[in-house]
Amino acid sequence: MRVMICVVALGALSLATPEVATAAPPTEACTLLTAADVSSALGASVAEGTYIMPSLKKTCTWNIQTGGSVTLNLQSLDFFNAGKGSMASAERSAASGVGDEAYFLGVGPTTGLMVKKGSGAFKVSVYSKSLNLDQRKTVEMKLAQKVAGKF
Questions:
Q1: What average pLDDT does the segment 140-145 reach?
Q2: Do 85 and 99 form a contact (C-beta atoms < 8 A)?
Q3: Residue 77, C-beta contacts closer than 8 angstroms, at least 6 positions apart
């Protein structure tokens, strides 16, 4: 009789324990950073983020008032993993301190910080001739940490 009571009690406890839900990755890039976030990281004023097309919400661009832009692109894990693959003309370097895994991906004079967080991924890129590569990477890291906190 005692064994049966314990089994019933354990069964009731397992029903009462909520399952941990995995949140879906965000789908609207412009909601993840504000103009103030981007301006602060850059040290330069930017306009509010905009979508290239209103129906395409996975890419948001903030235009730097002195020239250039910052882009946040929400991506699939497949896209993130493809960037780690054999892109012959790309340079990759590991990045730490953001997300579950991250790397800088550079092609020519441009770079972007690719970040995997949970079941989603994103890329932050700074396009500015007034910042050198190391400065752009620093800004990308600051912005990526803000975005990753919202995944």
A1: 97
A2: no
A3: 116, 119, 120, 121
Structure tokens at 57: 């919400």
Rg (CA), the chain: 21
Tokens of 39: 């301006």
Task: Express each pLDDT in 5-28 by its tens digit.
Answer: 333 333 433 344 344 445 677 889
**CA–CA distance, 42 with 20 (Å, rounded to integer):** 37
Topology adopted by domain 23-148: Protein Transport Mog1p; Chain A (3.40.1000)
Q: What are the backbone dihedrals phi and psi of residue 29, each rounded to the nearest 5 degrees, phi first?
A: -60, -40
The pLDDT tens digits of the residues spanning 69-126 come to 999 999 999 989 988 876 555 678 889 999 999 999 987 778 899 999 999 999 999 9
Looking at residue 89, the DSSP 8-state letter turns out to be: T
Sole residue written with tokens 């994103």:
122
SS (H, E, C) 68-96: CEEEEEEECHHHHHHHCCCCCCEEEEEEC
